[in-house]
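pinning this so it doesn't scroll away 📌
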Amino acid sequence: MMSTGPGPHDLATTRLILNDRQTATAKTVTPEFYAELDNEFASFKGHCLIAQHDFSEAWPTWEMHPEGDEFVYLMFGEIDFVLWVDGVEQIVHVSEPGSYVVVPKGVWHTARPKVPTRMLFVTPGEGTLNAREPEGEAL
């Protein structure tokens, strides 16, 4: 697979996928984006997704990444990242632009923004699970 050209690219509309050889591929966000990732990138094995997301409300679900740690960088705003560790919510408050959270591999997490917030995510996507409650049945 060829590397994506140097850009510029808009992370709000075009995500970046890094494969296991660290080759970058840009992919436009569509309503079928996540299903397409699995089909086009071999169930996302060995890949990381680099994405920007804006939040003004709490996430409606929890998620977990079984294949690696997730890096989450605050661009602006204020947010509580909630980690589910040993059956207990651990809140990591993030309010300084430039600060980041590392969500450990296999840890359920969700987020509750305090104000409109923008974050950059580097996510090991293979096997990502989403559920209404931590450790709940996957959606």
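📌 and the second one:
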Amino acid sequence: MTVVTTYLPSNKCSDSYPSLFGTMMVKNGPLFIVAENIFYHMMGKMVKGYKGGSYVFLKVETNLVDIEPSGFMPLIANDQERIVQVESEFEAAEMSYAAACAVVWQFTLQVIADTIHRLNEQQAVKIYKTLQDFQYCRAEMTKPDGSKLFTETDLKAIYKLTN
């Protein structure tokens, strides 16, 4: 399988949340703003020692399946390889910051899609598709230098916390 990982330029990132999550209004405002807030809140709750940071957004493409074109994943720009403790409700694991972002993003996508599927099925399908795309491609995702984004240890920890 060939996976191409693209890091979006910073001037393209501002459109990513509205493109994937849409502008439908939910209790606390536009869905895309709620989704972004959920992601950062969950980073603070699940990743021990998380204090914020700047993010890059990445997209994936593959020759084997159709990828949701509006799908993306936020990835902390600094300290991607630093090892952190990530805790879900039932499990904990050590992994790189990059892998921690993948875990939290997966939980965020799942929560949002499960919450809105009755209100906006089309938007929920885009979000579920993005979730599946990143699950399918994560072992082959790369850093800008071409090396693998996630180590085998990361992949085992991601699996442990998300399955």
